[in-house]
Amino acid sequence: MSEVVQMQARDGVALLTLNRPDRLNAWTAEMEHAYFAMLEQCAADDEVRVIVVTGAGRGFCAGADMHELQAIGDGTHAASADARETRERRAQTFPLSIPKPIIAAINGACAGIGLVQALMCDLRFAAAGAKLTTAFARRGLVAEHGISWMLPRLIGPARALDLLLSGRVVLAEEAQELGLVNRVLAPEALLETTLDYARELVVNCSPASMATMKRQVYAALDQALPDALAEANGLMLQSFTAPDFVEGVASFVERRDPRFAALGA
């Protein structure tokens, strides 16, 4: 098991913890590889229905590890290593392809590529007072890794440009007002409240429905309304013939928890 990302699974929820607390969980190539591999593992595991991501210690992810950035900047990375990393590296949007809900529990500093990864989660719960920043403009960088696509879709172009151009820090409370995070919680309650929400999804919601809805929402961002509507209508007709629809109605009528099949079962 990786030391820089840890995983625990219980009650249908996988908890992934970025684990470099001495560096505020700064992002490295090793962490990226381990995190994406664990997401892929969770996607294939029928026992996992929802994924929660958080950081160890005081931070969520304070951005790219400065030692790695300095090595890139001063050219000490070997050309062959750069080529190999580029060839093998998955896109930072990889979490969007995972057919299960991913919830970020932002427990502290969330910057740069750390913010990118939080945005690639489907929901974001944040600890009160947590600091979030794009940071890229203040490092001489650009809007990296798809954040120029995702951020305006979450909060609008003008607000996205404010955060990107200024690189200013926003606290969790302002982030919620902007639409960047879904909930702001007391730091001591953040993780357990997030896990409780995840367990609610496990108990009450069809994995197949959640997978389809996630795919619909991200696909519809690039679709015209008539196309999205036509696709939704087709999917709705298919759902009427699926076992989960029968089970969902039966569980409601019988006033019991549904017994939905695992994804792909």
Explain what you see.
The chain is an alpha/beta fold and 265 residues long. Helix content is 46%, strand content 16%. It has helices at residues 29-44, 66-73, 79-88, 113-119, 147-155, 157-166, 172-178, 190-204, 207-220, 225-239, 243-253, and strands spanning 5-10, 13-18, 50-55, 59-61, 102-106, 109-111, 123-127, 131-133, 170-171, 183-185. Helix 5 (147-155) packs across helix 6 (157-166) and helix 9 (207-220) runs antiparallel to helix 10 (225-239). The longest helix has 16 residues, at 29-44. The model is unreliable at 78-84 (pLDDT under 50).
Short description:
The chain has 265 residues and is α/β, with parallel strands linked by helices. It contains 11 helices and 10 strands.
Strand and helix map with partners:
Blueprint: E1 5-10, E2 13-18, H1 29-44, E3 50-55, E4 59-61, H2 66-73, H3 79-88, E5 102-106, E6 109-111, H4 113-119, E7 123-127, E8 131-133, H5 147-155, H6 157-166, E9 170-171, H7 172-178, E10 183-185, H8 190-204, H9 207-220, H10 225-239, H11 243-253
Parallel strand pairs: 2-3, 3-5, 4-6, 5-7, 6-8, 7-10
Antiparallel strand pairs: 1-2, 8-9
Helix pairs in contact: 5-6, 9-10
